[in-house]
Specification:
The complex is a heterodimer of chains A (1075) and B (94).
Chain A lengths: L20 H10 L4 E7 L5 H11 L2 E11 L3 E9 L6 H14 L10 E2 H10 L3 E5 L4 H8 L1 H14 L6 E5 L12 H14 L3 E3 L11 H12 L19 H12 L2 H18 L3 H5 L9 H4 L5 H11 L1 H4 L5 H21 L2 H16 L4 E4 L6 H5 L29 E5 L3 H12 L4 E9 L2 H12 L3 H9 L9 H7 L4 H9 L1 H13 L3 E13 L4 H4 L2 E3 L5 E3 L6 H4 L2 E8 H17 L13 H8 L12 H10 L4 H10 L2 H5 L3 H8 L13 H4 L9 H12 L3 H10 L3 H17 L4 H14 L6 H20 L1 H11 L6 H11 L2 E3 L11 E5 L2 E5 L10 H10 L5 H8 L3 H9 L4 H4 L10 H11 L14 H4 L13 H12 L12 H7 L15 E12 L10 E6 L4 E6 L1 H6 L1 H4 L4 E10 L5 E10 H11 L1
Parallel strand pairs in A: 1-2, 2-4, 5-6, 6-7, 9-14, 15-17, 20-22
Antiparallel strand pairs in A: 2-3, 3-5, 8-9, 10-11, 11-14, 12-13, 16-17, 18-19, 18-21, 19-20, 21-22
Helix pairs in contact in A: 1-2, 3-4, 5-6, 7-9, 8-19, 9-10, 13-15, 13-16, 19-20, 19-23, 22-23, 26-37, 26-38, 27-37, 29-37, 33-34, 35-36, 37-38, 38-39, 42-44
Chain B lengths: L3 E8 L5 E6 L2 E5 L4 E6 L2 H4 L8 H5 E10 L4 E9 L4 E8 L1
Antiparallel strand pairs in B: 1-2, 1-7, 2-3, 3-5, 4-5, 5-6, 6-7
Classes of the chains: A alpha/beta (1075), B mainly beta (94).
Chain lengths: 1075, 94
């Protein structure tokens, strides 16, 4: 007789199961099972992956969930299995039950469901079976008080009267005789089932694939309990693994001690399993696209006709000056795209995305397309994308092809600060029954894994912290390898050899690698479906309050869900803010989407490599590339962004491209037919689009087919067939054998290295727009950058850049500062006022009160109406936010900040009184006098206060204090580096603003460190030997002195090949002692 | 609880003890032996937990049974140590 496991927790039972569904299903198939259940704790998190794996392996999927149930008190955990082959009734009921368990109000938000709710949902649709198993309260009672067990069972039978909706789960995990999960216990459960007339099924309550994984489960238990091993009751043994049929049959016999009873137990298990086999298509709508109904979109009639109409009417809007020839080209391209969309039946999908895009624009929120969607003219005409695919040479077929039938991804970028507003608007527009947010599972990586492993072993927090801090960009699985290779882990590697606990730590950390850790809302995904969405996916509350699906992005395609990627991009917020400030202060209307893309001043600024704040090209690597590349037009930006990607970098495309561009080599266009395709990149194949066009030209295939072949290139077996096709078709078209061999070797080598040009062009748009703002409106742009902090660098570097640009920064002032960085008109022109939000520890209500009560007449008035805490008041004083108000800002003021501090300490000794407007404030008035004679803080002390309280050096650059030593040492300023020859020995010093360890072609790790010294950034590269010399410093110290040699990389490109590094503060201390 | 090491343990095909020598007496198992698995506190004892070593670190095979010799009849718990493949025994009741 066969057997089916009906209770199985995968790794998607976070901190409980140890194996991914794909692993479990493959193993089950190999063991000869023809069906397998997944019953994760609290939800269907792994269900879609399970079903997908079952389809691939050719076995039947069964899905359930393990939930806690409560009546008067907790009834423990039970398992609910969905029945299959009932047109989704079981699946829908299971989804609704899980969602209900997550709709918890009150303080305890842990998912659990009331027995009454469970009873109601199952009686409405008796299409699920509840298993009362070893984690139920019933199982406990069976052991201690059989009478209670009987009445509990009766209560369950009353709640679930419909036949087939209740069963008892018998589990023998060979624990100590007489205990839970022992043979005796299993027998008692079986007897209870018989006495109550309830079917009994056998399971092994599986939580790992093999006995070896039990140890991993111990560590996960500790992470779940948030307690070290030994402080809670651990699992009883290592028996909860996926046991083969024969073993399960023997267990049945051992439990029942009777062959007839045992075989009855096994056959009732099979009966239930058969009932729960799902038909993915009929039950879950597998692979069938689901879009909002027409009425939800406000469309009448045939959606394709509506799409056709919409696209055509937009042509004059997008191409106002098009002449007949261009119009013909547009019409031709549009027809081609529309035919493909119609053929795939995606008209409603495009209308849906267009509807959302229009809604976002109506909310006056900036929107831009990202990814291959920018290659579509339809997207451009519908306002989904802002990139003209015709002028940029982008291909529709890269985005959507009739050769594939999966829904294309259309990703849109919006202002990050408005993202939640957009989500709420989408819920309102389409209704809560059609919309849910997407979730994502974060998985264990190096640091998280070592932290939880350390917790399990009971290591001290400090000790784990030290280890975790040196874990830099590697997966937990390669911990041992990293220990052998990386200098910053060398010390730990030695320690762990002599320390039992540390050596264990390494082993168990590796075991946690990639296991799901917790679920959170996806940063940009919204699922839009039809009105039956909530029958197809369970939902739970997200951090922002709106419901989110328990499925992640990989589950969308299989489920046919339309996923809209609405990504909040801080740069879009920063730009929108800059535009608003321009309009507020100068009354000028700027429309970033219609500015010319060929403004020479913009490219001139970019070429200086002062790209800080420019989208995508501000990183140290991009800055270096900018210096070498020297872009002069929009397509250069597209190219530069595309080249600086892992693929093109690994494919070694940058150097030949630059050499061709600067005339160092003669570009090889291979054949006159290919010249138009390869000219833009000097003969180097960079873009997917180029590869597709080469295939098209040389073989005569369609672009759609070319893209299909491109996708298959990375798959070895398919590549052979493509090679044959390419060579024979190209030969038939009369190309020479040498050319064909040469082109094929390029195509083959291209593999996964190229980049989608549409994606590059979509990125280049905000790059250009931000560069344009920095060129023409630097003050407003700096204000936008400081307010929305869009880049990779700390805010203090933006301040340093402002100083370098000559943009005046005004200090925090309680009468003028708000929660944003405002542009102010001053006598000497425009300036940026620091936001009050930067003060450490200031609360939201304090900020709100200051904003609402502004302006204040004096310090006491401020204290009484803004009611800051004493700590905030002191901090505001220390950083000078009260200087103006107290009249001590001027150079020749009678009093100073120390006097003021004494004063505010005196007035805040008592809490501020509520102002009684009818009473004069005599007694406090006398305090309005400032004391005098306190020693004024030095500029250095003021700077220290700024750094301590805002994390930023506002009044001066923090490197300035070391200047005397730096001068003596002959340290070179970052701004001067560009003027030095290659191979000059230099010392540079500054604040570390970026550390990167990008993937390298050689596989060896290289560390890039950027130092800011107020004149710009010095970028230093540390190879192996240099890393070893200063390993302790590299990832930890903020102020560094680096020695090395300059390396010229282009017209404005200079970087430093580092030899060594020192802690600047330590140097300073010893230098001062010495002098 | 006094644990003693056993010698001369004879097993059946399923790995269940059939007979053994204890205190110089020959014992024969006289009931259906109940196999169960107890746990080990690996985090206190083990020095490494590489992949594949898990089960032996987590659990330990136990047998509960009645055994008779020419002189007495005892209720015993036997512990099968892996990977040493040695046996320990203690008496629960007689």
């Amino acid at each position: 007789m066969g057997f089916t496991h009906l209770n199985l927790s995968s790794a998607y039972s976070a901190h409980y199961g140890t194996n991914r569904p794909e692993q479990l299903v493959a193993a089950a198939n190999a063991m000869g099972f023809d069906a397998l259940a997944i019953t994760d704790r609290d939800g269907l998190y792994g269900a879609i992956k399970h079903i997908g794996a079952c389809i691939r392996e050719g076995i039947s999927p069964i899905v359930g969930a393990n939930l806690e149930v409560f009546g008067e008190q907790s009834l423990g955990r039970i398992t609910i299995l969905a029945h299959g082959h009932n047109r989704g009734a079981g699946w829908a009921t299971l989804c609704r039950i899980v969602s209900k368990a997550h709709q918890r109000t009150g303080r305890d938000k842990r998912p659990m469901i009331a027995l009454s709710d469970l009873s109601q949902l199952i009686s409405q649709s008796p299409s699920c079976t509840v298993l009362l198993g070893p984690q139920s309260q019933l199982a406990d009672a069976v052991l201690h008080d059989p009478a209670v067990a009987g009445s509990l069972l009766a209560a369950w039978q009353q709640a679930l009267p419909h036949p087939g909706t209740l069963a008892i789960e018998v589990v023998n995990q060979l624990t100590e005789p007489g205990k839970l999960l022992s043979q005796e216990h299993a027998l008692a459960m079986l007897e209870l089932a018989q006495a109550g007339g309830v079917p009994a099924v056998l399971t092994n309550a599986v939580r790992y694939l093999e006995p070896d994984d039990a140890l991993t489960a111990d560590v996960l238990d500790a992470a779940r309990h948030l307690e070290p091993l030994g402080l809670f009751v651990p699992q009883p043994n290592a028996q909860a693994w996926l046991k083969p049929t024969a073993t399960m049959a023997r267990l049945a016999l051992e439990i029942a001690e009777d062959t007839v009873l045992a075989s009855r137990l096994l056959s009732s298990t099979e009966q239930l399993a058969d009932r729960c086999r799902l038909d993915p298509v009929q039950d879950c709508g597998w692979g069938q696209p689901k879009t909002p109904e027409q009425k939800a979109l406000g469309i009448e009639g045939n959606p394709f006709e509506v799409l056709w109409q919409k696209a055509h009417t937009a042509i004059p809007w997008r191409y106002p000056d098009a002449k007949a020839a261009q119009l013909a080209q547009i019409q031709h391209r549009l027809s081609k795209e529309l035919i493909a969309i119609n053929q795939l039946g995606f008209a409603t999908y495009f209308l849906t995305v267009a509807d959302v895009a229009q809604m976002i624009r109506d909310m006056s929120i900036r929107i831009a397309a990202r990814g291959s969607g920018a290659g579509s003219l339809v997207n451009y005409l519908l306002g989904i994308s802002g990139v003209d695919p015709i002028s940029e040479g982008l291909l529709f077929e890269r985005f959507l092809s009739t050769e594939r039938s999966t829904l294309p991804d259309i990703d849109i970028d919006v202002e990050s600060a408005r993202r939640h507003d957009i989500y709420r608007a989408i819920f309102r527009r389409y209704g809560g029954n059609r919309v849910t947010l997407l979730s994502m599972q974060s998985t264990y990586r190096g640091r998280g894994a070592v932290r939880d492993s350390g917790l399990a072993l009971g290591l001290e927090d400090d000790e784990i912290d030290k280890i975790a801090k040196n874990m830099w960009r590697f997966s937990a699985r390669s911990f041992k390898k990293a220990m052998a290779e990386r200098p910053e882990l060398a010390r730990f590697a030695t320690d762990s050899k002599n320390d039992r606990q540390l050596s264990l730590l390494v082993d168990i950390t590796e075991r946690l690698d990639k296991l799901p850790r917790h679920i959170s809302v996806h940063p940009c995904g919204v699922i839009l479906g039809n009105s039956s969405l909530l029958d197809l996916t369970p939902t739970e509350a997200s951090g922002m309050g709106l419901p989110m699906s328990q499925f992640d992005k990989d589950d969308m395609d299989p489920m046919g869900f339309l996923k809209l990627d609405v990504l909040g991009v801080r740069m879009q917020s920063a730009m929108a803010y800059s535009v608003r400030e321009i309009s507020r202060v100068s009354s000028k209307k700027v429309d970033l989407d219609s500015i010319s893309r060929s403004d020479p001043d913009v490219y001139k600024l970019i070429r200086t490599t002062n790209t800080l704040g420019m989208f995508q090209i501000e990183s140290p690597g991009q800055r270096e590339l900018t210096g070498k590349h020297q872009p002069t037009r929009f397509n250069d930006l597209t190219l530069q962004i595309s080249l600086f990607r892992p693929g093109p970098m690994k494919g070694n495309m940058i150097k030949p491209y630059l050499d061709g561009r600067h005339g160092l080599i003669n570009p090889d266009y291979l054949h006159p037919d290919l010249r138009p395709i390869l000219e833009e990149s000097y003969g180097v194949v960079v873009f997917h689009e180029q590869l597709m066009r080469i295939m098209q030209v040389m073989t005569g295939c369609t672009l759609a087919r070319a893209d299909e072949m491109r996708r298959m290139l990375s798959k070895d077996q398919r590549a052979k067939a493509i090679e044959q096709y390419f060579k024979s078709s190209a030969t038939a078209r009369g190309y020479s054998k040498t050319l064909i061999e040469k082109v094929w070797s390029i195509i083959e080598g291209f593999g996964s290295f190229g980049f989608c040009k549409a994606h590059g062009a979509a990125f280049a748009t905000p790059t250009y727009q931000s560069a344009w703002l920095k060129t023409h409106y630097p003050v407003e742009f700096i204000a936008g950058l400081l307010t929305h902090d869009p880049g990779m660098y700390p805010r203090r570097l933006i301040l340093a850049e402002a100083r370098r640009l000559g943009v005046k920064i005004l200090p925090i002032d309680v009468n003028r500062s708000t929660d944003e960085y405002l542009v102010e008109k001053t006598k000497s022109g425009l300036a940026v006022r620091m936001a009050i939000t930067e003060i450490a520890g200031i609360s939201r209500p304090e900020i709100e009160r200051i904003r609402c009560e502004q302006p204040f007449s004096d310090v006491l008035d401020f204290y009484q109406r803004a009611r800051p805490s004493r700590r905030t008041l002191e901090r505001l004083t220390l950083i000078g936010a009260l200087d103006q108000l107290a009249g001590i800002a001027a150079e020749n003021a009678q009093h100073n900040r120390s006097d003021l501090l004494v004063h505010v300490r005196a007035i805040s000794a008592k809490p501020p009184r509520q102002i009684d407007k009818n009473q004069l404030q005599f007694e406090l008035g006398s305090l309005e006098k400032l004391p005098s004679g306190n020693i004024a803080p030095s500029p250095q002390e003021k700077l220290d206060a700024e750094l301590a309280l805002t994390g930023m050096d506002i009044s001066a650059h923090q490197i300035d204090r070391f200047q005397s030593m730096l001068d003596e040492l002959g340290v070179v300023r970052a701004g001067e580096l560009a003027g030095l020859r290659s191979n000059t020995e230099v010392l540079v010093a500054g604040v570390r603003v970026a550390t990167q360890t990008p993937p390298m072609r050689s596989g060896k790790r290289v560390v890039f460190i950027s130092l800011d010294d107020g004149t710009g950034c010095a970028d230093a590269t540390f190879f192996d030997e240099a890393q070893r010399r200063c390993s302790q410093l590299l990832f930890q110290n903020r102020l560094l002195l680096i020695s090395g040699k300059t390396r010229r990389t282009g017209v404005r490109g200079v970087s430093i090949l580092a030899e060594n590094a020192w802690d600047l503060r330590q140097l300073w201390d010893s230098w001062k002692k010495a002098s | 609880m006094q644990l003693e090491t056993l010698v001369g343990v004879v097993l059946d095909v399923d790995g269940a003890p059939v007979s053994f020598i204890w205190n110089s007496r020959q014992y024969t198992v006289a009931s259906r032996p109940v196999r169960w698995y107890s746990r080990k506190l690996w985090w206190q004892e083990a020095a490494a937990a590489p992949r594949g070593a898990g089960a032996a670190l987590v659990e330990i095979e136990m047998w509960r049974l009645w055994a008779v010799s020419d002189y007495d009849r005892v209720f015993l718990e036997m512990k099968h140590l892996d990977p040493e493949d040695s046996w320990e025994i203690h008496r629960i009741d007689s």
